[in-house]
From TrEMBL:
Protein name: DH domain-containing protein
Entry-linked PROSITE patterns: DH_2
Organism annotation: Modicella reniformis
Pfam families xref list: CDC24, PH_10, RhoGEF
Superkingdom of origin: Eukaryota
């Protein structure tokens, strides 16, 4: 599927409107087909056999049975557009060649479309913004086809004013029957909330295009950073809504909403970059708020941009719940019951994938922030630790509530920190070249390669994860706040250790010896151990950047031993923990 780039310079267009209500593209096309039946000579183009035989339709997952695809197919033939224009009884009618129209040449089709556009411009005095382009008709993008529908509707409006539009055939209802049971009510809820959601996306898109058209409010780069791939998202969501509307119009026994989700599962990938960008986009909106004030009239003042930017995240989380409710209200004997179950599994996979993408994005931002929050020594870079997999606030080993740990699990290393207690306010202002003070004290860390095992321990009223490393068989505890937190940390850590052990078993004894000497454990024992001298009072005595020059806090990978490592060795020899200094 091909989508137009985000920076497409479409004229500013509001969502389709009928009377005082906003209607969907599906509803608008259904209404347009009804009006076209009153155009002299147009009935021949509404023949179902013609629609099935024509090869000019858009290569999309939409079905020729929905009104959007039907009109898209017809208008690409060119001749139906000429027929519509000729319904105005112009002095110079457009030439129509209906001979083997379904087997025509694409260039002939485009020539007919071109003559229709020229006639609208010259004879009807339409403005450029009132017209679609040939590429918008033939490109597989609903953002362009919306303009096609508007142009044709304007021609029909002119025809109706002049009294040339014949009596319409009986109106077809695009909506399901009035709710008579809970399942039908839920289908109506799904339908209406989906239409409302697409309308909100279209309003946000119109706002973006207004910013692009103005050019003076925000730079093109900033607009792109805020709205990302919104055009592609709107295009996809219209197609998804069309499929929902097509199913909702069927009798209950024929509805197969599960298949709709299965068909669109791969296309839901369009959500991943948009949802992952929401945090960055929201921060930019706050940053540029003063500049955006002049455009506030284009969006609901009570909600604003950020509430609209978050709606795709909210909607993707809502789909599994709606499917769950629909399954509950569907008879297991329904012909498409198992399709619903499969559809629910499909959208759950989509939601989980999007959540995982968001989690990776947030972890990248957290890792970047950690580089500046800790006073790393020797020019260390957090990026050398591998990807950040988990970060959480855990209890300290003795369960003291006033000294929680901030724990970061990277692919290569486990890092444990505590917040620095500021004892005095900074008296000197920061200069241009000065760096902000670190906000975290590095208590301890250990490389994953040195961890021997991860064991959940049953302790009354506590959720403890015991970490054993293979140097002197030392161990420490991670105390989680909940059972779910314990399971999450145990699962990820255990997998990392298993992978490290598998790699280590394939390494020769010499290489293993070199690795052990060059990557010695950076022992967090002094603050994890359950002795009485756990870092309490002496923690607050550290220097301002949270690093004690005498004790140190690690063994560097170069092999140089730190004071903390010496303390560990001394403890293992005489059974007591020596005091620093």
């Amino acid at each position: 599927m091909h989508h137009s780039p985000t920076t497409d310079q479409h004229p500013i267009q509001p969502p389709l409107v009928r009377g005082n209500s906003v209607v969907s593209l599906y509803q608008s096309c259904l209404n347009l087909i009804e009006r076209l039946s009153g155009v002299p000579g147009f009935e021949q183009y509404l023949d179902p056999d013609l629609l099935q035989s024509v090869q000019a339709g858009p290569p999309s997952i939409m079905s020729p049975n929905d009104p959007v695809s039907q009109l898209w197919i017809l208008f690409r033939l060119g001749a139906p557009l000429a027929c519509i224009f000729n319904g105005l009884r112009p002095k110079q009618p457009l030439k129509i060649n209906n001979t083997d129209i379904s087997l025509g040449n694409i260039n002939d089709y485009k020539a007919s479309v071109f003559h229709f556009l020229v006639a609208c411009l010259q004879e009807l005095q339409f403005k450029d913004d009132d017209l679609f382009t040939i590429s918008e008709l033939y490109h597989d993008d609903t953002n362009g086809f919306v303009k096609v529908i508007r142009t044709v509707s304007m021609v029909l409006d002119r025809m109706e004013i002049q009294g040339f539009l014949l009596a319409r055939r009986s109106k077809r209802n695009s909506d399901p029957a009035r709710p008579t049971d809970n399942r039908t009510k839920l289908v109506n809820e799904i339908l209406e909330t989906e239409r409302s959601y697409v309308r909100d996306l279209e309003n946000l898109q119109a706002y973006m295009r207004a910013l692009q058209s103005d050019g003076a409010v925000l730079s093109p780069e900033t607009i792109h950073l805020i709205f990302g791939n919104l055009n592609a998202l709107v295009d996809f969501q219209r197609r998804f809504l069309i499929a929902i509307e097509t199913n909702a119009a069927l009798p209950s026994q024929g509805q197969n909403f599960g298949q709709v989700f299965l068909q669109h599962e791969e296309a839901f990938v369009v959500y991943e970059p948009f949802c992952a960008n929401v945090r960055t986009a929201s921060a930019l909106v706050v940053q540029e708020n003063d500049k955006l004030q002049k455009m506030n009239h284009l969006l609901d003042a009570q909600h604003g941009i950020n509430s609209n930017l978050i709606k795709p995240v909210q909607r993707i989380c809502k789909y599994p719940l709606l499917m769950h409710e629909l399954i509950k209200l569907t008879d297991p004997e329904h012909p498409h019951y198992h399709g619903l179950v499969n559809g629910q599994a499909s959208i759950k996979r989509v939601a989980e994938k999007i959540n995982e993408t968001n989690r990776r994005q947030e972890n990248q931002e957290t890792a970047m922030a950690l580089q500046h929050r800790v006073a790393w020594k020797d020019g260390e870079l957090v990026s050398d630790f591998g990807a950040l997999l988990l970060h959480d606030t855990l209890l300290n080993p003795r369960g003291s509530p006033d000294k929680a740990l901030e724990v970061y699990l990277f692919e290569k290393i486990l890092v444990c920190c505590q917040s620095i207690v500021t004892q005095k306010k900074q008296t000197r202002p920061l200069t241009r070249n000065s760096k902000p003070k670190p906000t975290l004290h590095l208590n301890g860390r250990i490389y994953i390669n040195n961890i021997k095992s991860i064991l959940p321990v049953s302790v009354a009223g506590a959720y403890v994860l015991q970490v054993v490393w293979n140097i002197a068989a030392e161990e420490f505890e991670l105390r989680c706040r909940t059972e779910d937190q314990l399971k999450k940390w145990h699962g990820v850590l255990d997998k990392l250790v298993a992978e490290a052990n598998a790699k280590r078993s394939d390494v020769a004894t010499m290489n293993n010896h070199i690795e052990t000497s060059n990557h010695s454990c950076e022992n967090p024992s002094s603050f994890f151990h359950n002795d009485d001298d756990f870092l309490d009072d002496d923690f607050e005595g550290d220097d301002e950047d949270g690093y004690d020059e005498q004790r140190g806090y690690r063994n560097h990978p170069s092999g140089q031993s730190s004071a903390l490592g010496s303390r560990l060795r001394a403890k293992t020899e005489d059974g007591s923990m020596p005091q620093s200094g």
